[in-house]
Amino acid sequence: MNPLECGDAARRVFELVEQTAAFMLADNILMYHSLPDELSTREFIDRWHERKHFFLPRVNGVNLDILPYDRSRMHLGAFNIEEPDGDEVTDVAAIELIIVPGVAYDRHGNRIGRGKGFYDRLLRDTDAVTIGVAYACQLCDDIEPDDFDVPVHYVITEQGIIKVK
Hints:
It is a single chain. This protein is an alpha/beta fold. The chain has helices at 3-18, 21-25, 42-48, 118-123; strands spanning 28-30, 53-60, 63-68, 74-76, 82-84, 97-100, 104-106, 111-112, 129-133, 139-140, 154-157, 160-163. It has four helices and twelve strands. A hairpin with a 5-residue loop joins β4 (74-76) and β5. The radius of gyration is 15 Å and the shape is globular. The mean pLDDT is 92.
């Protein structure tokens, strides 16, 4: 996909996210700051950050800390991903919706991440609604999950919403 197609697809994906009850009802949302090869979250965060409480992950050893998003308090952290500064770590129990990145998804909510298990460890400890976002070309027929993998509740691509559970 060229950059224009990627931008259009990201806008469509997040328009669909905005239509979900989970998004409409959530006040505390864990997002991710996208890498260049991921579905971009920047426009969505910019549009909603004053009306929703966004949180971003920060790598802490083998786990993710959750911190409030503040555009003026960011730094380039682990794996060259922008991470929030500060020590105001939030318990995952306070998060109502988690937008989960992935390299690939299937229609059962299984995902392939970047191989470190950060999100699987985080998702294991939450009751939040989870939405995996991806380009349609990242949707696979079947991904064989490992024992520690945690599927998402929804997968959203520019082509539509897949309700998993």
